[in-house]
UniProtKB/TrEMBL annotation:
Residues 1-135 form the N-acetyltransferase domain. It comes from Streptomyces pactum. It comes from the Bacteria. The keyword Acyltransferase applies. The keyword Transferase applies. This is GNAT family N-acetyltransferase. Keywords: Acyltransferase, Transferase. Coiled coil: none annotated.
């Protein structure tokens, strides 16, 4: 089975990233002087979630951790940080999507407490995305904290 992102997802338009930075929605995570991760927390995603209400939800996008840093708990800490940021803004849900055929990634989101909310295939895409959602009341009591992440715009 093929894993990873379709080629069209590997290049995010510079203008889209720049707009997210300008709005304070895109973050870099540094470990010392090295950038080890990036992600965005956005307040709407009508393209992926057009059939649901967007009130009360925040949307996690473009979460990427440097491969050499996988397994350190950075990604999970960033998901939790994003959930807290959403709650601070009065949003009780954290939503995201992932390539539905990326089994390993979808299983990781499930382990983090996300529930699947159905597949969607966007115009121009050949692979469906699986939508995930987690409430702000969620906790992961069995997971040890290995990393404390601090993100800033």
């Amino acid at each position: 089975m093929e894993q990873g992102l379709p080629a069209s997802w590997r290049v995010i338009p510079r203008a889209a990233v720049a707009a997210g930075v300008e709005r304070g929605e895109t973050f870099l995570v540094r470990w010392g002087e090295e950038v080890v991760a990036t992600f965005a927390v956005e307040w709407a995603d009508v393209e992926v979630w057009s059939d649901t209400g967007t009130e009360g939800a925040a949307y996690l996008h473009r979460l990427a951790v440097l491969p050499a840093c996988h397994g350190r708990g950075i990604g999970g800490a960033l998901v939790d940080w994003s959930q807290r940021r959403a709650a601070e803004r009065g949003r009780s849900l954290l939503r995201l999507d992932a390539v539905a055929t990326n089994t390993r990634l979808c299983q990781w989101y499930a382990r983090l407490g996300f529930a699947q909310r159905g597949e969607v295939t966007l115009p121009g895409w050949t692979r469906p995305s699986m939508r995930f959602e987690r409430t702000s009341l969620h906790s992961r009591p069995n997971e040890k904290r290995r990393t404390t992440a601090v993100a800033s715009p």
